[in-house]
Each structure stands twice: as structure tokens, then as C-alpha cells.
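Hi Y.,

Following your request, here is the sequence exactly as I used it, all 259 residues.
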Amino acid sequence: MPGRRSLLAALGLAAGPAARPAAGQSLARPALPQCRAGTLYLTIDTGWGREAEMIAAAMRRHEVRATLFLAHEPDFRGDRTLGPGWAGFWRARVAEGHAFASHTWRHWYLGTDPGPGLVRYASRRGEGSETLDQAGFCAELARPMDALRAIAPEARILPLWRAPGGRTSPNALRLAAACGLRHQGWTARGFLGDELDSARSPNATLLAQALRQIRDGEVLLMHWGVRSRREPFGLVFEDLLTGLLARGFCFAPLPPQGI
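Below is the corresponding structure, written out as C-alpha cells. Let me know if you'd prefer a different format.
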């Protein structure tokens, strides 16, 4: 396995801020083709961002538009994914026509509801835990989208949210609905497996599985990089796109009401 520096070079990443699109580059969103196999909904959670530039470049080359769920997570550079070092990256994705939705601000996990109108919210990195009421939970869901608007006011933001790990609770769903947000998960066959251990689930296996099992209407889930995965899924992401496009699928952002 290559060291960190050589791996970053292989992925086309530097340790500094993300690159912005070249001057004069066309970012107009093309019309979706008539697709014989149907439509897929690619969704990308923030993760730690190591493969972000590689994944974004592949989507740009193939004119794929996705829905990006944002949280303020620790990244591979020692920063956080909605910090100043990522502003250019998110502006570029807005200009390319991707849609955005909330993945919570702190990316903590929801637990068992502690009482009526309350949600339990705890860090998996030992940062603490809280009990949030309606106002507190709405603020947690709104904050990443507020940060995105400050970076790119023209961003297309959907009234959707995704709980970290996909773990919701009855109160969380009710409180979020009162904030005007609907929870969006993913389909079983749309789980691309980039969070799995790469020794047990190597890229070749995940790629073959996805190309074999994905059907019309799937909501696909992946990340801009997962810290624990030693074989970056981003290395086969373009193979996934070309394979699905060759099968006759097209890609679209989620509709505002979700899937």
C-alpha cells in the first residue's frame, strides 16, 4: 500500500485548498438523455474527502449530477469539510449543477429518544453528547446549509436530510419534519460499500456487485473518501460510472420530495 504522500499524488490531491474549475470551463448542465435502463440517484456524504477531486472530476467528465449531503466533518488534511479550505471545492460543485442537503452539522449519531419532543445526539469520536429539543435539532440540521449558502448563495438546496449512519429515531423524524425536512436514506442495492473493510470487500468485488445488481430508481450511497478504507473506492468510481452509463442508465439529483 503506498504511503500518504504517494496516495495523495495518485488521487490527484494536494495538501492545500481544493482546486477551482479552470477559467472558461463550461459548467452548463446538459439535458438528461432518454435512458433505456432508467434513472439513478447518486448521493455523496462528506466523509473525510481524500478522493474528492478524483470523484468530482469523473462526474464532470461524464456529466453526472448528484445530491451532496454536507456535514462539518474532520478531513484528510486536518481541517473540516465546511471550513475555508473547502470553499472552492463546494463552489465548483454548485456551478456544475449538483444539489445539496443536510447531513447534520457535527455528524453525531442519534440514539434512543429520551422523552417526548427530544432526541439524543452523541459523538462517536468522544466529543460528548446532548439532548436536543425542536429548536436545537432544527438548528443542527440547518447549520451546514447556512454554511453552504455563505460560500455559494446560488446553491440548490433540497428540503431533505440524512442522519449519520442512516440512524434515525421516531422523534428525530417528527422534529425534522416540523423543520420542513424529510429524511432521505438509500436503497439496499444502492449501498456501494465504500465504508467496508477493503481486505474483505476489495474494490473489484464492490464494482462487480454494483454493476450486477443496481436497478432503475436506486438511491446510491458513497462518500468523498472514508478514512478507514485502505483501498480507496474512488479508484474505481469512474469504472462504476462508465459501466452504469453503458448499461443505459442516466443520473439525476434527487427530487425535492425525496425518493
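The mean pLDDT is 89.

Thanks again,
Q.
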